[in-house]
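Same chain as my last thread, 82 residues:
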Amino acid sequence: MKSKIFSEAINNRNRLRICYQTTEFIIDPYFFSVDKNGKKVLYGKASNSSEVKKFEYKKIANIKILHQSKFCPIIPIIPLAN
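reply #2:
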């Protein structure tokens, strides 16, 4: 069921509200996969961060698609010069 929710959010570029461990996040979901240890994971950017983070499926709960909130993926290809 989680995979279907994540696929819909990724395809429609909708933000998600999730509870991860004991913290609530609003994330821009980019893709989901299986990591090198065989665990299902979701990669996304938390709204209060500028980096893409890995979220383990089994630690994600209370998923809500925020249909009114769309995002545009921001995945830097080259580092920004300061």
